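During data preparation, a discrete fold description was generated, and the record follows.
___
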Amino acid sequence: MVFFDRFRTLFLFSIILSNVYSLIAQKNNLNSFFNDFRNEKIKNLTKNDTSTNRLESQLIKLNKANDTLTQIQVLNNLGELYCNRINYEKSYDSYWKALLLAEQIRDRASMAVSYNGIAILYSLYYRREEALNYYLKSLELNKKLVNKNELKASVLIKNYLPLATHYFYNDDPETMKSYIDAARNSINPTHPLMIYLKAHEGYLSLLKNEYKKAEKQLLPLVSILEKENPSYLVVLYAMLGDTYFGWNKLNKAIIYYQKSNDIGYKYRNHLNFLPDTFEKLSKVFHQQNQEAEALKSLLTSYEINQFLYSSRSPNNKYLLEIKDQFMQEKERLDKLAAEQKLEQLLYNESLWRLRYIIILISAISSIALGIVIYRYTINKHRGEKKILLQKKELETKKSEEILEIKNKELTESTLRLMAKDELLNDVKTNLKEISESPNPSNIKKLIKTITINSKENWAEFESRFTMVNEGFYSRMKEKFPQLSQYDLKVCALIKLGFSGKEMAKVMGISHESANTSRYRLRKK
């Protein structure tokens, strides 16, 4: 009996020891596979390729050329490419650099692209609220641009589909359907993105556990995507794997999960699906009692997940730090912009105040100058008017005086002619009488009458001459006191421009006597 107990104990110990050795061997085999995978697979996932090198080189050239708009586009493209290459640090850097540049030049379309990219990065780290916030920011910007006719309505599908995916992972089919419907209303049936809309409709059926409907919606898309965008088959095959897994068609689920992983390794796109598909493969293998394959898939999922998302990963430690560089930088720039805006407002206020003072002073000066000019013009006009009135009054007065003189002359001339006619009639009558009875005394009397008339005519002439040439005789006498009355008569006739012949007629003397009088006058 004792021997039997000892034998049983020894037998159990040997079984335990055998299992331990088996587990150690299995662990070594798994570690060997794990190391091989790590060396061959993971390193290949993150290394740069020609696409990233080309965009990085282009970015350097654009930076030197100061082409900001194209630089933003390249940064957004790099952000998407780095995200697919699971280099989330560089993806994050590219997106927020693009966003900062877009904000500087107010390029809202590019800002919407950057917001969408940042939302995807937050979503990958299960920061769902932050992701949704950025998705909605992007959608709001694009809606405003569409309302202003700066973008076509079809651009909104790039917002609606990511939001539908967001609610797919939130297990919210109703909200997901609302965004799918909005996406369908934003494009026409021939739009190139229609295939992705149909894929999301298949995902919606999957979310509702309508597996047969999901298969019917998703399978026809495979042949189209193989030609147009084979890298997206990572997502489509994963969804087909989920469909068959949920439908309990495990062999088909394994096939499509493995296809999804193979496409991911080949094109190095949508690599965030790898941990999930390996984990689901592990579950499928477990249900088929393929524990070794299940354990391999589970370890692969764990390692890739650790590499992609763990805080211990040097590739992604940057993103999980508490200090969010983008938010810090944006906050700093917003604060700086607010300070600059305040300074600008204060400057503008002082500038407007100064402008107001200058305008006020200018207005007052202009009014004062206008008043001075107006008064000067009025006074000048009044002065000129006064001068013109005075001149007119003088001309009127002079005209009246001239008219009066003319009237007097006319009256005197008329009276003189009448007197001369009377004289001539008297002379004629006397001559008739004398001719009838000649008498020397009568002849003398007639001659005396004619002489008296001549003296009266000369007196009349002097009166008129003095009226027109006032002060003439007094000035002549003052300068030349030796002049006689006869000499003054000669001076008066010379002033009037009479010739010697004319002077002789007026004075009733001979031409020679007139010239002699002029000669004597010159000597005096």
Q: What stands out?
A: Residues 209-321 form a domain with the Serine Threonine Protein Phosphatase 5, Tetratricopeptide repeat fold (CATH 1.25.40.10). The chain is about 85% helix and 0% strand. The chain has a mean pLDDT of 78.
